[in-house]
Amino acid sequence: MHLEKYTAVKGDSDFYYEFYSEGPKGRIRKIVRLMSLTEYGNDYYNLYLGDWLEAEDRFSDTVVSNNMDREKILATVAAIVVDFTAAIPHAVIFAEGNTASRNRLYQMGISANWKVINEYFDLHGFKDGKWERFQKNRNYESFLLRRK
Amino acid sequence: MGKVSTSKKFKVDIIVDKSIKDRGNDPAAEEKARRAVAFLKKHGVPKSFEKRK
Residue A61: how many CB atoms within 10 A of its CB? Predict the structure, then answer.
């Protein structure tokens, strides 16, 4: 796999990563946060991808930045998930976009990185009220993955 | 600062920088986590995932 990615940075925590999207809209600080879902289970984490809004001093996952680097961002997020699950191999990661179009975006990112994802991860998608093993070209409402 | 992980197959390059601080206080992420818990409680997880629960 030689998909172009940004270099991500993390601090002391395994649960928080940053990288910068670069494109026509400028340099946008992106954060990926793995939030523990202990209310459901100790090994469960929610994947959150957001933008840092400097003027508002807050994160947001509803901003559409349109920085023409969608594939590069998704490949970077995939790399972060690989890194995170290397540190916490028993982690089960839940991901869900805010909108159907955001979920389709995740779907495209997964499909583009499918070779490596399928090698590393057991990935399921939620559709029509049930979980199934991920299949390309199907639109899912949410995703669940863990290391094989 | 240092590179901590590189997979030959996926070229996962993550830099560790102790100056990076999680600002925390992220209501959007907390809301998503709450929704995720509600979703998982309602729909459960695939059987193959339950084994490690």
Answer: 18
